[in-house]
């Protein structure tokens, strides 16, 4: 009897096993290996792997560029996540009841997602050209033409708020996606629920406030997780717009610099481990919740 | 909280409007408010299209119109010199990108389909744990595997080759592809699978004759999704590639990134457009499927 049950599921396990092995090795095995490198104290390419008891995780904070990289990543995340979330939700709210040409609006808001950050970085670097209007292309030039010269600024080269400007292309790229998520969320609120509230005399605003918005919490959570993990990993965009400059240094760029320019595997691996932990804290509870709630419904 | 909808209704389906047009919905889309909404939406359309205007217009400008003061005007004379220069520089990169993205997305889709089938319809004990462990692989920052991955590919003599890049893309694409197919296959009624089992069909036979014939939409979603992300990838390419396997993103970044040469905006913009055309075309022609891939990424299928 037991044997027959095993015969029932064993082929399935066998069919998935190549992927299990691949994920086991390439994701979990390599993460383990990377952590070992981070703990190895191997700061050049010739010394042997040792073990420095996690000293490097502390020492990293004494590096002049690292605290800045963390600060940049946090500012970028705050502006990008909030911006994309609010804009996406707002656009979806406007489209919720159906609007003439809705399909075309959706296509236009979403197309930036199909473009790589490397390609859009080319045009955003042009748009956010920090030079004064006589020499500038992009927005600074446009503002000058529109007699709004006062709006001209140094964009991503601003020492304090540069990363907020850096978030603009990312918002442009991702808010259409958030819009699509919210639109699906709005549309999944049963019409009878709204109707019932209206019958009870609720104004249209109150219908949204007390009936529709509360139903959107799972969507907001999904959007937050997705935007958040993209944001913590941001790399292409920074490389395309600013390259490896210290003023826009973020952990992902730091990993690259430590590995390729400074030839310091231990530092590169340590930064990568910090990134992994940041993402894991965000994603693991969400994953467990997702898979569980799907099983129980 | 999500119990309102049946698990059989994937998120993308919900985008369609229930019932007919709701122009008559109470308090909603009638009167001036409707035009206000339309105006705001149109204003955002203009904002969203600014980069496109700049790309197209600048790419067709001859070099002597590069003066900042005319940056936002239409070209005085339309020139394709930027485009031909872009084509010449990017051609090897475009070829590599085609090779990587086409072969990679096909392998990904096949793997995803098999995995998704087993994890939804031919489950084994612990299937959910395996699935959750897979999913985590979708979110990890790839920097956290890059140093040992480069070492591993070097040992396999795959570092710097197109095959090495395809391998990396396929392996780290397993989670999302499995997810898309699994979410699609849960909509197949279990009775169909059971009937096939009762008829004495084994796993592969059931997959082949019951599941695969209805899989076309999920294949389309996965192929498009993987094609797009492989085409647009920069991270793997820059860590694991080499000059003769660099895809178009790296080539584009190399030509655009160096401040050494005088800034040839027309060629840069043409290059950026050229590098984006394949994915843009896929999006415009098959946007429906692209959308479904996006929704799958949100997990709550």
UniProtKB/TrEMBL annotation, chain B:
<comment type="similarity">
    <text>Belongs to the binding-protein-dependent transport system permease family.</text>
</comment>
<keyword id="KW-0472">Membrane</keyword>
<dbReference type="InterPro" id="IPR035906">
    <property type="entry name" value="MetI-like_sf"/>
</dbReference>
<feature type="transmembrane region" description="Helical">
    <location>
        <begin position="38"/>
        <end position="60"/>
    </location>
</feature>
<feature type="transmembrane region" description="Helical">
    <location>
        <begin position="269"/>
        <end position="291"/>
    </location>
</feature>
<keyword id="KW-0813">Transport</keyword>
<feature type="transmembrane region" description="Helical">
    <location>
        <begin position="165"/>
        <end position="185"/>
    </location>
</feature>
<dbReference type="GO" id="GO:0055085">
    <property type="term" value="P:transmembrane transport"/>
</dbReference>
<dbReference type="Pfam" id="PF00528">
    <property type="entry name" value="BPD_transp_1"/>
</dbReference>
<keyword id="KW-1133">Transmembrane helix</keyword>
<feature type="transmembrane region" description="Helical">
    <location>
        <begin position="206"/>
        <end position="227"/>
    </location>
</feature>
<feature type="transmembrane region" description="Helical">
    <location>
        <begin position="100"/>
        <end position="118"/>
    </location>
</feature>
<protein>
    <submittedName>
        <fullName>Carbohydrate ABC transporter permease</fullName>
    </submittedName>
</protein>
<feature type="domain" description="ABC transmembrane type-1">
    <location>
        <begin position="94"/>
        <end position="286"/>
    </location>
</feature>
<keyword id="KW-0812">Transmembrane</keyword>
<feature type="transmembrane region" description="Helical">
    <location>
        <begin position="130"/>
        <end position="153"/>
    </location>
</feature>
<dbReference type="InterPro" id="IPR000515">
    <property type="entry name" value="MetI-like"/>
</dbReference>
<dbReference type="GO" id="GO:0005886">
    <property type="term" value="C:plasma membrane"/>
</dbReference>
